[in-house]
Amino acid sequence: MNMDVDIFRRLSDFDNVLVVDDKGMIIFYDMADLNVLMELGIRPEEFMGKSVTSFYKNITNENSTLMNVLRTGKPLCNIKQEMITKTGEVIETINSTYPIAENGKIIGAVEFSKRFFSKDAIQYLDKYSSHKIFRRNNTVYR
């Protein structure tokens, strides 16, 4: 897969990383804002091993960016996604999602996302920026 180096440079604009296996089960996540898990009504240990579509009312295997990349093997870059949690909270993100391949077979996908806050949800922004694990992503992923 040949990709422009600028695409990888732009990954530093994202705050969160989510990795799923070939069936869409969460195998790794690193979120700058753990309040998302509270909005989903789950604890961090409950997030692992679950289907990426199971946390939202409106995200299905057909419209999920991760599931689309698993199905097609083609990356999706800078896709806006609006997700409605089971409790009715709206989470808006911009996602760039890439397949993970081994020996020509898609074995998973990785999604880099950045959350955007609507005017109604701006109160979450204060919690987000002061969260003790928030960092301007100096983390290196391999």
Give an account of the 3D structure:
- It is a single chain.
- The two termini are 16 Å apart.
- The chain has helices at 5-10, 35-40, 44-47, 65-72, 123-130; strands at 16-21, 26-30, 76-84, 90-102, 105-116.
- Strand 1 and strand 2 (26-30) form a beta hairpin.
- By secondary structure, the chain is α+β, with helices and mostly antiparallel strands.
Radius of gyration: 15 Å
**Strands, total number:** 5
Shape, per Cα inertia axes: globular
* Tally of helical segments: 5
Structural descriptors:
alpha+beta; about 140 residues; 5 helices; disordered C terminus; 5 strands; globular
What is the topology?
Blueprint: H1 5-10, E1 16-21, E2 26-30, H2 35-40, H3 44-47, H4 65-72, E3 76-84, E4 90-102, E5 105-116, H5 123-130
Antiparallel strand pairs: 1-2, 1-5, 3-4, 4-5
In short:
The chain has 142 residues and is α+β, with helices and mostly antiparallel strands. It is built from five helices and five strands, in the order αββαααβββα.
